Amino acid sequence: MLNIIYINSGQSLMLGLLIVEHYRQQSEEALLAIAEGARPFVEETGFIYQKDFFLLEDIKSFHGESINIVVRQHPSTIGQISLILDEIDLGNIQVSSYEDSFAIGYLEPHTFSRLLRKYKIEARHSLSFDRLHLLDIPEKIEGQLVSSENLHHIRNSYPVLFHEAQKVMELFDRLQIKELTLVAMRPIGSDKFHRGRYKSSKPTRTLVRIVNDLIPYCDTQDIVVYRQDKRDRVLTRGAIKHLIAGRPHLALNLDDHLSGAFGLDAILYLLAMSDIKLSVICFNTSFPLSYSRIGSNNQYIVGIDIDRIEHYDLVASAEPSLMEVYDRMMRYIEVQENPSFSVDQLSHGLFRIRR
Asked: Looking at the predicted structure, is the pLDDT value of residue 262 above 60?
């Protein structure tokens, strides 16, 4: 069976590739399909159309084959797949669904159930990352575990994804860097990010304050590198400029060295597998959960110090939104069997993963 893994944004690239490698490790054919809007970002990594990825419309060209379309469990992506199902022969089609990142789980699962009923097609798999969490809909669906160990296979299957990051690692080697802190900026304070749930009237000051409050939790403070967020480049670039100007030690902006749109994932992998002692400031995101199972000598500072939230000038929706993500990640961590990492509670809404 041909498995077509569909992503609708660049943010989901690594998730999509983890699933591609999941099926390939089972000796099944798997291809990555993307939304047209994500194409510029994917091509910026060096990926080649019809070699490394396909477009959603290309599913029509696989007419007659047994196909499993694998879609993120989110109303928007399920709606996009529905448009394609309207135009193809459904005789050999199955559909699978995967979680919306490592810890978010399934969003509005009834939309997937409606899709199955509307087209009278079977679901093949319910895919989760590093845990089994069956899709909460009436249909009985086989649950499969997608392992973050597949990151190693991605490194081998898509070497172009790591070219720029490898150059940065060579720079670190020339500078004889033994330890560093990496700040993966998120546009907290922006009115563009997550529909303004973390908006601030003074977003640059807010973001700078949050980072300055998080850095002391890292064991590696002499060298700090920053990576801006494309969802609000102006805000994150401006905050990085202020942070670099205000710190007395060596600081680097990774965007001066990484041209690839997805260089952060690649550099995180290479750092995790290196001898460099690494601290990563992650804000409220689940991506460190995928790196906590590989490499060694790493720590990830996850969340925001809610006890200091009054200093950040955020809208009222910020605290419950931040705690919603925090609670989901805590539930995810609590059900891990034989975890290869430890978790330290640092403050309300803030914790550290040690590998």
From this structure: no
Q: Which two tokens stand for residue 341?
A: 């990492």
Q: How far apart are CA 315 and CA 243, in angstroms?
A: 23
Tokens 């569909």 belong to residue: 6
Q: Where are the beta strands (DSSP E) in 202-333?
A: 223-227, 250-253, 277-283, 298-303
pLDDT digits (tens, 9 = 90+) for 215-227: 999 999 789 999 9
Domains of the chain from N-terminus onward = 2-153 (3.40.50), 160-354 (3.40.50)
- Residue range 83-116, pLDDT digits in tens: 999 988 888 999 999 987 777 666 677 889 899 9
Closest alpha carbon to 69 in 56, 87, 51: 56
pLDDT tens per residue, range 134-165: 666 667 888 899 999 999 999 999 999 999 89
Amino acid at 180: L
Residue reference for tokens 């990151």: 151
d(CA 338, CA 323) in angstroms, rounded, equals: 25
Q: What is the mean pLDDT of residues 238-256?
A: 87
Which residue is associated with the tokens 């807010």?
206
Instruction: Give me the residues paired with residue 350 across strands.
Output: 303, 347
Q: Which residue has the tokens 């998120």?
A: 186
- Per DSSP (E only), the strands in the chain are 2-7, 29-34, 54-55, 67-72, 93-98, 122-129, 142-146, 179-184, 223-227, 250-253, 277-283, 298-303, 342-347, 350-354
Single pTM value for the model: 0.91
Look up tokens 């860097």; give the residue: 177
**Alpha-carbon span 79 to 59, nearest angstrom:** 15
